[in-house]
Design goal:
By secondary structure, this protein is α/β, with parallel strands linked by helices. The chain has 2 domains: 192 residues, Rossmann fold, CATH 3.40.50; 105 residues, UDP-galactose 4-epimerase, domain 1 (Alpha-Beta Complex), CATH 3.90.25.10. The protein has 10 helices and 13 strands. A 7-stranded parallel beta sheet has the order 3-2-1-4-5-6-11, with helices on both faces. Strands 7-10 form a two-stranded parallel ribbon. Helix 8 packs across helix 10. The protein is globular, with a radius of gyration of 19 Å. Bound molecules: nicotinamide-adenine-dinucleotide. The site of nicotinamide-adenine-dinucleotide has 28 residues, from helix 1, strand 2, strand 5 and strand 7.
């Protein structure tokens, strides 16, 4: 099996590449950034420094003829999308069209797309949020991801290319930097290791659904290998509050952390968790790494790489 991974030198993408290579896939990576210091590109994996939203990218996919495309390239930040909505849209929407046109010309069978909980916005429904929930993004990032999801549906109708839309909860784990969508565990761990004060916005009651990166990589593989088209939350369904996170990190660090409580940030969603049941029934995916075990792995990794993150 041949695969292209866009965004493959990034945090989640590099874990997807490692897993695909281990499973015997022939892999080519498209990313605008070269691999960082903490990821060793596996043997046989080709890395092309290329902008996903370009004709060059489409041409490459058309000629490489992958069976599946794992499309992760994005400016993965809500805040950045508010400051620079054009660049966010260019990467996510033009990027999706380049991927889809490449897939059409290559007769690829499937596109696995990294989407996000941000497509749901701030819904007034009970947690955890199901995939059928009325969607209403409240950021340029969520809007462009939702638009990209619709292009996948259109190309399924027009050309029969199957899609797997994977809406991730907050992903964390080794190789995550301190910016980006789900970086709070990386930010807290880095501060704990460097003996700095942790900045806690609000009363500590804000919750997120944290999913470990190795589980997310496995979900990508399962989604690619299952026939058909589907939209799935990739999540644990469990909420962890900032206060709990701090307690867990203190336990892993083995010392008390200095925490400064600051005013709640406007627009910060108070609670978030995504229902994981459809991922289990559709592709047999269940997250297996609990928050404590995942945090320990992340913290251990962070200790070695703290000056590069
Ligand atoms: N981290 C999370 O919690 C989370 C949650 C939901 C969805 N996602 C999605 O998962 C995907 C991967 O996110 P991540 O956390 O690994 O972030 P990341 O920033 O580490 O990875 C994104 C990669 O895309 C690359 N990229 C950006 N613009 C590009 C362009 N124009 N052309 C080619 N490559 C480009 C970056 O260089 C980077 O390597 C993204 O699509 C993101 O929106 C992430």
């Amino acid at each position: 099996m041949k695969a292209v991974v866009t965004g493959g030198t990034g945090f989640i993408g590099s874990h997807v590449v490692d897993l695909l290579q281990k499973k015997g896939y022939q892999v080519a990576v498209i990313d605008i950034q070269p691999p960082g210091v903490f990821w060793k590109v596996p043997t046989g994996v080709e890395v092309l420094e290329m902008d996903v939203a370009t004709e060059e990218c489409e041409e490459f996919i058309a000629s490489y003829q992958p069976d599946a495309i794992f499309h992760l390239a994005a400016r993965a930040s809500v805040i950045e999308s508010i400051h620079n909505p054009h660049e966010d849209a260019r990467t996510t929407i033009d990027g999706m069209l380049r991927v889809l046109e490449g897939a059409r010309r290559a007769n690829s069978k499937k596109v696995v797309f990294s989407s996000t909980a941000a497509v749901y916005g701030n819904p007034s429904v009970a947690m955890p949020i199901g995939e059928e929930t009325m969607i209403g993004p409240i950021s340029p990032y969520g809007s462009s991801k939702l638009a990209a999801e619709y292009y996948l549906r259109v190309y399924r109708e027009l050309y029969g290319i199957d899609y797997a839309i994977l809406r991730y909860a907050n992903v964390y784990g080794p190789r995550q930097g301190i910016s980006g969508e789900g970086g709070v565990i990386a930010i807290f761990s880095k501060a704990a290791i460097q003996g700095k004060t942790l900045r806690l916005f609000g009363d500590g009651g804000h919750t997120r659904d944290y999913i470990y990166v190795a589980d997310v990589a496995r979900a990508n593989l399962l989604a690619a290998e299952k026939d058909g088209s589907f939209v799935l939350n990739i999540s644990t369904g469990t909420e962890t509050s900032n206060r709990e996170l701090i307690d867990y990190i203190q336990a892993v660090a083995g010392h008390a952390l200095d925490v400064s409580q600051e005013p709640e940030r406007p627009g910060d969603i108070r609670r978030s968790a995504l229902a994981p049941a459809n991922a289990l029934s559709t592709i047999g995916f269940k997250a297996v790494t609990g928050i404590r075990a995942g945090l320990e792995e992340t913290y251990r990794w962070m200790r070695d790489w703290v000056h590069h993150v």
